[in-house]
Inverse folding.
């Protein structure tokens, strides 16, 4: 969970009693609490076709995909991209699991797969459409299926089922640090949706918990990937930039995109997990910040 002083805020939303972990000054969170004066976006790599799926391993190393060219890269010891998987079959969203494997949405083969340290893939779920993924500490996972407006759940035993329908274009998907609440971005709407996670993997009490800022004359956010830091702040890649929300769902501000191109995804990585990495069209950027992240496979309480 988040370090430092915490309070439990009780919020009642349409009959949903929501126990929200947040820092004592959550209502005063602002971009200045995260951004470091003088720090800006730095180029990590360029020359790709379309970057996506940033993921962080147990050592803080960054992995990402070039979806259109079907490659997966990781950063070497000098922070430069090197090939990890030469044929990824269009793998898009990715995340490391508690077993140390890299899970991904392998679009061309309609599978969810897990890559071992050598880059060899193993099928986890088949005959599914997918976009982004989140892996739970238990080894279960959720993934979004924009084509069918669905969210799927796969149990630790590999049993899959649909657990939500109806969003216009479910895209980015992440859990709160306590893994009790799931957040899903709707690319074609103005909201990020929150669900309570049940013990059996079901989702309940669906709510439009976060409302994104929209561009003039637009009704959609173009919300793509997202991440959540140790303090419960949500960062979501949108048409306007990287929008940040506090744990109560209030918009704190928008961090400008590093270039005028599609901002697709975001993750915390680095040795201290205090660097934001974003995939932005043909390039990858990083930015040192004051915030850190709690990875879902980390031991509870860290």
């Amino acid at each position: 969970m988040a370090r430092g002083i915490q309070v439990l805020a009780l919020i009642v939303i349409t009959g949903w009693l929501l126990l929200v972990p947040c820092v004592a000054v959550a209502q005063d969170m602002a971009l200045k609490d995260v951004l470091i004066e003088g720090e800006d976006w730095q180029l990590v790599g360029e020359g790709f076709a379309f970057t996506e799926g940033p993921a962080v391993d147990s050592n803080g190393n960054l992995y990402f995909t070039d979806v259109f060219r079907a490659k997966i890269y990781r950063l070497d010891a000098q922070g430069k991209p090197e090939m990890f998987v030469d044929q990824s079959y269009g793998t898009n969203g990715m995340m490391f699991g508690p077993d140390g494997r890299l899970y991904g949405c392998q679009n061309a083969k309609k599978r969810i797969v897990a890559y071992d340290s050598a880059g060899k893939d193993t099928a986890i779920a088949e005959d599914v459409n997918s976009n982004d993924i989140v892996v739970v500490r238990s080894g279960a996972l959720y993934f979004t299926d924009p084509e069918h407006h669905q969210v799927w759940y796969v149990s630790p035993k590999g049993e899959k089922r649909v657990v939500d329908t109806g969003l216009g274009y479910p895209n980015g998907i992440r859990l709160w640090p306590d893994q009790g609440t799931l957040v899903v971005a709707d690319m074609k709407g103005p909201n990020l949706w929150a669900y309570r996670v049940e013990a059996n993997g079901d989702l309940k009490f669906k709510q439009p918990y976060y409302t994104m800022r929209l561009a003039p004359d637009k009704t959609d956010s173009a919300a793509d990937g997202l991440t959540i830091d140790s303090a419960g702040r949500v960062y979501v890649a949108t048409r306007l930039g990287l929008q940040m929300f506090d744990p109560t769902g209030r918009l704190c501000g928008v961090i400008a995109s590093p270039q005028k191109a599609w901002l697709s995804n975001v993750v915390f990585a680095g040795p201290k997990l205090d660097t934001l990495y974003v995939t932005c069209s043909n390039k990858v950027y990083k930015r040192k910040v004051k915030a850190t992240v709690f990875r879902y496979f980390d031991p509870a309480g860290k």
Summary: The mean pLDDT is 92.
